[in-house]
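Morning. Coffee machine broken again, so started the prediction first thing and wrote up yesterday's gels while waiting. Chain of 315 residues, entered below exactly as on the submission form.
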Amino acid sequence: MNKIKNECSIVKDLLPLYAEGLVSAESAGFIEEHMESCDSCKSELGSIREGKDAQKGATGKAVKDASPLLKLRKKLALKRAACIAVSVIATVAFLLIVYAVLSSPEYIPYSEGEVKTTETGGGDVIILLPDEATDYSCTKIRPEPGTDLSEYHVSSWRTASDRLFASREANELALVIREAEKACVYYDSNDGTEGTLIYGEAEDGSAGVVSLPRLALNYYLYVMLALAVILLVVFIVFRKNERARNWLARLELLPVSYIVSHFIVSGIRGYTYSLPRDFYLILLISFLLFAAFLAAYGAISLKREIREIETSADF
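Came back before lunch.
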């Protein structure tokens, strides 16, 4: 009798390990042989297995119940990241917009007495620009075939930042004209009027060249407007397809970003006398606005998903 009790005590100590399959083959054989004649140990094993199954069920239920919470936490983290991204990109875009406004050139028209030329003994031509000029450009036009006359076109400007801060001056330009070179210099007001001859003689008394504004920015604007309309039509056609609708909404933000950037840099006039600067600035601001719009769109979508998760979880 004592022997059976001792075996029961040993087997019951081993049953939790046996239920997990963690005993050796010899120990498993000993336990199974004992349980053939011991209902108490067999019942104990059944209780252990039932408790294990109940524990697994409770764990699975807990994980299932916690799933909406974990999903919500992940969505909230993504929403915070999206809000930070929107703030950073919008700040950079705002700074670029301020730069575009403050650095936009205001061309100074020709005024007799303010634009003067003098020659030095070494062949240099000194051009005195208006006092308010803070920057200038000088372009050389090579002689046309059959002529030996070189043309120089000078223009000067100031910017809004220069008017506000008076940070610099650039009202003197030195041109190096070789002694044997036949040249004339025009001052371009960049206001649709003819350039004014300020040095040398024009060939055959010809008039100055009219500096016309560049209209290429308007052509790019029309292309983006057409693209925006096309995408809008496609969006309406596929509005019932959620996946296509989301992608088309994101693509629509691209031409919208360019259109907004165009009006920021060029205003409603659309023409420019400094095409490369304005075009690259529009592209840069467009990229930043597009990134900001995408991040904002993502944040709005996340907010909608979070609301759906909260509703499904009965929050």
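The chain has a mean pLDDT of 75. Going to sketch it on the whiteboard this afternoon.
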